[in-house]
Amino acid sequence: MAGVVVVGAGQAAATLVARLRSKGYEGDVTLIGEEPALPYQRPPLSKAYLLGDMELERLYLRPESYYAEQDITLRTGLRVDGIDRSGKTVIAGDELIAYDKLVLCTGSHPRRLPAAIGGALDGVFEVRTLADVDAMAPRFTEGAKVLIVGGGYIGLEAAAVASKLGLEVTLVEAADRILQRVASPETSAYFRALHMGHGVDLREGVGLARIIGETAVTGAELADGTMLDVDFVIVGVGILPASGLAESAGLDIENGIKVNAQGQTSDPHIWAAGDCASFPGAAGQMRLESVGNAIDMAELVADNIMGAGRSYEAKPWFWSDQYDIKLQIAGLSTGYDRVVVRNGGSGALSHWYFAGDRLLALDAMNDSRAYMVGKRLIEGGKSPSPEAVADPETDLKALLKA
After folding, report:
1. Which string of b and e fits 370-386 if b means at least 16 CB within 10 Å?
2. What is the chain's percent helix, strand, coil content, to nearest 5?
3. How many Å apart are CA 69 and CA 314, to the nearest integer?
4. Does 1 have pLDDT greater than 60?
């Protein structure tokens, strides 16, 4: 058995094997996942699943029966330790698994706090896997004191869940403002007000000095000397591409596993897709951490394994759920010099990012109409006038015809 072997069992991997079969690929397909669970969605982990609003079975991307029906060999709970490129096999313990084409969908892993400042204490958690969330969930009891380190989307989503469940929440962000790396000051201000309005003690411009405890978390000291009583800590300080397997195999690495426009690595028999892969962009190799990118890259690689010869054209989109607010993001705001605020009425709001007169991206808060129109404009390379966007009397759909 050789055929296509996929390492990883997240969104990209599950999409890729399904695409191969739906497009008529008749060779062997093997999907190898290190976790014991079926391939599952990650975004709900820090939202609906942690809150208790989503059952485990609903996390699964496909039921177990699907893989058997599609003649996909599913190997869960199996760690791939290496790649023998010359022998075209992956090494998993004592087992060698042969491939004709290998696809790395290894995803990403969270940045961890150093053990020297308490990062290895019992009660310190990251939010990345099902096991991570299952381990922390029993601690979400009313009145418990949680410290969240990091004001990105993962940290803010965890803060929202904790607040809704009645915990005492402190969130610290070392940068000047939450979401500083990914959003405008206007969007940061919106979510700052949202969280503070729900009782979160949100502190910007102050980092974590150390977590206190002998074997388990009992408190924390902030960089400004503040001492906090803490029952447990959630760390959300970013993720890194899981490119170690590729690097040890001698593949080119550049901000993740470097692939060409077709999704091929520096070895023509090995491909990569999803969070772990960097692809050619206007300013060099770029990497996107999103469900949309995982799906689109996986479909591209599957098609190209079958000879399509397509080049990847990223269409970035993201989302985040916090309290009763759905944030939807289209495009990439890098290089913006102006933010136009549009009030959509009934609590709907959107922030439109322009570079000169060119529309780059938008953040839509409970405004699905603005999101859909903005997404289509960005993907079509169209830029409405900032004045038209700001005018609440403007019919958004009319912007598509302009």
Report:
1. bbbbbbebbeeeebbeb
2. 30, 30, 40
3. 32
4. no
Q: How far apart are CA 105 and CA 33, in angstroms?
A: 10
Sheet strands (E) in 250-315: 257-258, 270-272, 277-281, 284-286
Neighbours of 103 (CB within 10 A): 29
- Indicate whether 182 belongs to any domain: yes
pLDDT surpasses 90 at 2: no
Average pLDDT over residues 128-145: 96
pTM above 0.90, yes or no: yes
CA distances 135 to 29, 68, 131, 212, 348, Å, are 33, 30, 6, 20, 36
The band of 358, judged by pLDDT with boundaries at 50, 70 and 90, is very high
Same domain? For 229 and 119 the reply is: yes
Give the Cα separation of 280 and 300 in Å (integer): 14
Contact (CB, 8 A) for 220 and 230: yes
Q: Exposure pattern of 7-45 as b/e (b: 16+ CB <10 Å)?
A: bbbbbbbbbbbbbbbeeebeebbbbbbbbeebbbbbbbb
87-130 pLDDT tens trace: 999 999 999 999 999 999 999 999 999 999 999 999 999 999 99
- Please provide residue 75's backbone torsions phi and psi, each rounded to the nearest 5 degrees: -115, 100
Same domain, 119 and 185: yes
* Residues 226, 179 share a domain: yes
Query: How does strand 239-241 pair with strand 219-222?
Result: unpaired
Host domain of residue 261: 4-109+239-305
Residue 301: both structure tokens together: 């690689």
Same domain, 10 and 98: yes
Phi, then psi, of 156 in degrees rounded to 5: -70, -40
Q: Which phi-psi region, left, alpha or beta, contains residue 228 (left: φ > 0; alpha: ψ -120 to 50)?
A: beta
DSSP state of 38: P
The pLDDT assigned to 130 comes to: 95
